[in-house]
Design brief:
Number of helices: 18
Oligomer: single chain
Order of helices and strands: EEEHHHHHHHHHHHHHHHHHH
Distance between the termini: 17 Å
Shape: globular
Number of domains: 2
Strand content: under 5%
CATH class of the largest domain: Mainly Alpha
Radius of gyration: 20 Å
CATH architecture of the largest domain: Orthogonal Bundle
Helix content: 55-70%
Low-confidence stretches: none
């Protein structure tokens, strides 16, 4: 029996997360994702994924200080980023920059300190690249005291973000910290299973995330909403797309056969903005129309909004360049990657699936 893409095949045990596609649930370390987004910060949930428990006050302070202390880019990394071609897009910049961290300090087994270091650096890599290519102003003195999410938005624009934008993006990034053995996480676990180093495994994961089938969906949602805004007649446009067999970006998921719990949590967080933000109102209208059309033309397929749909609304609200959507996804998912890589090393077996030879 062949299982293309290893779909449905269990190859390891994990305590990190649980996804139930039939029920539409996502659990981090025993906690429902909606509960986490309503009650905890990015740093608190990251700590949960890395350590298995929520931090107390002293532990949370320690993690925040570590993320601040480790965010400064080494000189050689700044020089490398400056030398990269101007037409190299951000995911390739991140892949190359992370790879350049691979000194003999990163040996097998990986450590949580290394995981925190890489997590702290990714916003700085993105921000420094933007500074050099787009002239984004950046004052290290201003940024020094900022928590992770505020710092990330500041690195993208050179402006201190509003609390509303910080909370909106924080919700999205908590929701995308971790999602089981997705393609990039699996890629990283395969690499680390050879007793390679953490840098090599994260480089593998970034290369996998770069593919449009994995990390690029929000950009497609923006295109869809832009088209509806420009042409109007949402139902007519969406119906035509579905009848022609076009994929509606932001709808349906390989795992979830009902509502995507991340989309539910994200929409709930954004509801107070309804009627105040034209982009969000458009997204909600398109969601309703699209689901009605999909249920009519593809009955039984259970195609609902996924997390990327409302992620697009958030990205638009914070005025984020679509080219930064996947890098932003990566800056959150690195926490899940490193949690998995650390777990893999605790009971390591090298991955070696079989292939069926065809003459």
């Amino acid at each position: 029996m062949i299982y293309p893409g290893l779909k449905g095949i269990a190859c390891t045990e994990t305590r990190i997360s649980d996804i139930n596609g039939e029920k539409g649930t996502l659990i981090y370390r025993g906690y429902d994702i909606e509960y986490l987004t309503e009650n905890y910060t990015f740093e608190e949930v990251a700590y949960l994924l890395w350590f298995g428990d929520f931090p107390n006050e002293a532990e949370l302070k320690w993690l925040k200080e570590e993320l601040k202390a480790k965010r400064a880019l080494p000189t050689h990394l700044k020089q490398l980023i400056e030398l990269l071609p101007a037409n190299m897009e951000m995911m390739s910049v991140m892949r190359t920059a992370v790879s350049a961290l691979g000194t003999d300090e990163f040996d097998w087994k990986p450590t949580i300190d290394q995981a925190i270091y890489i997590t702290a650096l990714l916003p700085s890599i993105i921000g420094y690249r933007l500074q050099k290519t787009k002239g984004i102003p950046f004052e290290e003195r201003v940024a020094q005291s900022m928590d992770y999410m505020t710092y990330y938005l500041y690195a993208l624009s050179g402006k201190v973000p509003s609390e509303t934008h910080v909370k909106a993006l924080e919700t999205y990034m908590i929701l995308t910290l971790e999602h089981g053995l997705n393609a990039s996480t699996f890629s990283g676990r395969v690499t680390i299973s050879t007793e390679s180093d953490l840098i090599s495994a994260i480089t593998s994961a970034i290369g996998t995330m770069k593919g449009p089938l994995h990390g690029g969906a929000p950009s497609g949602v923006i295109d869809l909403l832009d088209e509806v805004a420009k042409r109007g007649h949402a139902e007519q446009l969406i119906r035509a797309k579905v009848e022609k067999g076009e994929k509606l970006m932001g709808f349906g998921h390989r795992v979830y056969k009902t509502l995507d719990p991340r989309a539910v949590a994200l929409k709930k967080k954004l509801m107070p903005m309804a009627g105040k933000d034209e982009w969000l109102d458009l997204a909600m209208d398109v969601e309703k129309v699209a689901i009605d059309v999909l249920q009519e033309l593809k009955p039984g397929r259970s195609l609902y909004t996924n997390v990327e749909f409302y992620a697009a609304a958030i990205m638009k609200a914070v005025d984020m360049d679509p080219a930064l959507f996947t890098p932003t996804f990566t800056a959150s998912r690195v926490v899940g990657w490193t949690a998995h890589l650390l777990e893999q090393c605790e009971n390591n077996v090298i991955y070696r699936p079989d292939a069926v030879y065809i003459k």
